[in-house]
Specification:
Blueprint (H helix, E strand, L loop, with lengths): L3 E10 L10 H16 L3 E4 L18 E8 L2 H9 L3 H5 L2 H4 L8 E7 L6 H14 L21 H7 L5
Antiparallel strand pairs: 1-3, 1-4, 2-3
């Protein structure tokens, strides 16, 4: 077992309330995409309420602002899920359901294995990335760091991340 796991958060503001027909395509795919994550190599944990997803976890006064968080064994596993699975089909349609972000909308960071990140920590990581750009404390796939804080070779990440399914 590695000493560290990778946490991720992504945030967004829906273009309409979650029960609006304009968001139906997103809501219809949510259960399948969450199940795909849970079946994926390297998956450890994801944020969810009793509903089975995180869309009803209110993190701000704005009910259309939603958060997604998960923890993965390593960067390669998360990269494979995000970019080499059917998750990409949903991600390609995100502008149909979410407003275009004005700044950082996701962040990655390492945490001790067995640690579950708080929403507050995740939101602080997004804010840090927005203020400072990628650092070992908050980064993105394009400019990633390993658990020791050293820059990672993005080309190697793309080559070594095996498809999820």
């Amino acid at each position: 077992m590695t000493a560290f796991h990778l946490a991720q958060i992504n945030v967004g503001r829906l273009i309409a309330p979650i029960d609006d027909p304009a968001i139906a395509g997103f809501v219809e795919r949510l259960e399948d995409i969450n199940a795909l994550a849970e079946r994926s190599r390297g998956f450890v944990w994801r944020l969810q309420s009793e509903s089975g997803n995180a869309t009803d976890i209110q993190t701000s006064p704005d009910p259309q602002f939603i958060v997604n968080m998960s923890v993965w064994r390593d960067l390669e596993s998360l990269f494979a899920y995000v970019y080499k699975s059917s998750h990409t089909q949903v991600m390609a349609q995100r502008r149909r359901w979410f407003e275009k972000p004005g700044g950082a909308f996701m962040a990655l960071w390492w945490l001790p294995a067995g640690t579950i990140p708080s929403i507050e920590d995740g939101l602080q990581r997004v804010a840090l990335l927005d203020r400072c750009g990628p650092t070992p404390e908050a980064f993105v796939f394009k400019t990633a760091f390993d658990a020791a804080g050293q820059p990672m070779d993005r080309a190697a990440l793309v080559r070594t991340a095996e498809p999820c399914f």
